[in-house]
Amino acid sequence: MSTKDESARVELLQGTLDLLILRTLAPGPAHGHAIAKAIERQSEDVLQVEQGSLYPALHRLIKRGWIAAEEGVSENNRRAKFYRLTAKGRKQLHLETTRWEKLARAIARILKPAEESSS
User: Fold this and answer.
1) DSSP code, position 27
2) Which of 38, 40, 98, 118 is least surrounded by Cβ atoms within 10 Å, i.e. has the fewest?
3) Helix (H, G, I), strand (E, B) or coil at 31
4) 61 and 21 in contact (C-beta within 8 Å)?
5) Measured distance CA(119)–CA(116) in Å, rounded
6) CATH code at position 99
7) Does residue 14 sit within a domain?
8) Of 1-10, 62-71, 87-96, which gets the smallest average pLDDT?
9) What is the DSSP secondary-structure string of 53-118?
């Protein structure tokens, strides 16, 4: 996964793509292409998810029992594998979201210390 602007490419923390996939699947099942497009759309095209990152992540999440896959037909009548969150995946989504929010607050405190923000 990378940012859209290759000159400003950002290496995201390990596990970030997993969290984004879990969050994207929270409303309901989706196929791989739809997951990638949803992440791009929801990030206002800042994040780009390449197939070379997406499918290994999906396989990893299946192996961990956080998502399950089943065959189906996409909106354009093509066979596709649809991924959905499992109960274990919903618990993991909550845990990972809490961790991410804690990390983001900590980084924000470092980037903008309290004494600077009160000036």
Assistant:
1) T
2) 118
3) strand
4) yes
5) 5
6) 1.10.10.10
7) yes
8) 1-10
9) HHHHHHHHHHHHTSEEEEEEE-TTS-EEEEEEE-HHHHHHHHHHHHHHHHHHHHHHHHHS-HHHHT
